[in-house]
Amino acid sequence: MTGLAMPKPDAETMRRRDEIVADLARIVPGEGVVDAVNEMRAFETDGLTAYRQLPLVVVLPETVAQVAQVLKYCNDRNIRVVPRGSGTSLSGGALPLEDAVLLVMSRFNRILEVDYPNRCVVAQPGVTNLGITRAVEDEGFYYAPDPSSQIACSIGGNVAENSGGVHCLKYGLTANNVLGIEMVLMDGEVVRLGGRHLDSGGYDLLGVMTGSEGLLGVVTEVTVRILKKPDTARALLIGFPTSEQGGQCVADIIGAGIIPGGMEMMDRPAIHAAEDFVNVGYPLDVEALLIVELDGPAVEVDHLIERVEAIAHRNGSTTCRISGSEDERLAFWAGRKAAFPAVGRISPDYMCMDGTIPRKELPKVLAGMRELSEKYGLRVANVFHAGDGNLHPLILFDANVPGELEKAEQFGADILRLCVRVGGVLTGEHGVGVEKRDLMGEMFSQVDLDQQMRVKCAFDPNHLLNPGKVFPQLRRCAELGRMHVSGGKLPFPSIPRF
């Protein structure tokens, strides 16, 4: 676990492990409980593989009733619970705890309904992101958010992390495409938020749950909106002599009022790694490669391609290739989608960061990352959602070399501090988890963090759901409820107290 501090295991829970395992086996019979050490190894980490920890026990429920019973059982006995989807979280959001039940939702893997008149799909949380598109593509529909891990990541995990993808610039993140969820609270109560409509009255609890990283409840059903595929989609592959010129081109395209379906950028190390991996014909003599996809009616796409070409030329582009067929368009994206595994071929280990900045700061941040690379003596490959400023620097290191993991962590922390310093945020779609937990103070004041914690307390007053994630300091809900009394008088005495 390196130097990462996690909540101290509860001695009473550890002492009663055998009893807990037996009780959970009665709730989820058959092969629903995994408690052997060797079998639990498969669940000891998630996409942030630098950190590993065996759970107390693994439970794989198959019904909503089982999820509710497990949570109520744990709530009544003060046992911690860590929800887990497909385990692709890159921020350690599904990292187990030694004294916690790991609640794995992978058996919730069915699409329950496809509703074309209302343009939505009702799915269980274990259905993969790509699985939703595959279910509706024969009728000309698709699900817009498309993370690079879409072949594996679950829709429930997408809700937990508010995942994005290459097409989120135009069509939005998960939060913009989820219509409703069914969820189970820590006390076992089953509730529904939203439905098959775009907006609900009252508090935006659906918005609160989307991106809540498993801290507030366990999602058991998701209703997402699906979109009709555009009439035409074509992509441009544009090369630049410097990353700064590519970054400026991004800003100029958006500034011209053009909103591409997707706009992604890679620097030289990522370009070479991706091309070696998929062989799609990426230019290897450029420092930055921009993929711009335009979609809509054919006449509109043709017009926008001319405008983007002109903007790229004004920014010093040295190569511009336009897809002439659907296969060629998909080939352009194949390299970008494979960038993460491709980089794994050129380095024993890498750490994928996730920060978001204002677009106009892109050249400055890229230059800053180069300086940090020299400072730490570690290479960095950049792959990012250029259109919305969501950066994914890949820090290359070798965990077998003493001290390199720690250097990579410090390098990543400095990148995120730089993002915040220029007006950005710590995360765009990977979440805070444990990776960015101790950096929350860089972006939020203690007042901000206390207010966020109050939301947590409203859903989970005993802090049993996914503790040790997101918040840099665990605090009891009672501490947050204290009020300052001066002269024997409460502040704002006219406000009703509940």
Quick structural gist:
With 498 residues, the chain is an alpha+beta fold. The chain has helices at 11-15, 17-27, 37-40, 64-76, 129-136, 155-161, 168-171, 205-209, 243-255, 268-278, 298-314, 326-337, 339-343, 362-376, 404-421, 440-443, 446-459, 477-480; strands spanning 33-34, 57-59, 80-84, 100-104, 111-115, 120-123, 141-142, 178-184, 190-194, 218-225, 227-228, 232-240, 262-267, 288-296, 319-322, 349-352, 355-356, 380-385, 390-397.
The best one-word shape is globular
Rg calculated over all Cα atoms: 24 Å
Major sheet characteristics: 8 strands, antiparallel
- Number of separate strands: 19
Q: Residue share in helices?
A: 25-40%
Strand content: 15-25%
Average residue-wise pLDDT: 92
Query: CA-to-CA gap between the ends?
Result: 43 Å
Low-confidence stretches: none
Structural class: alpha+beta
Give me the number of helical elements: 18
Oligomerization status of the protein chains: single chain
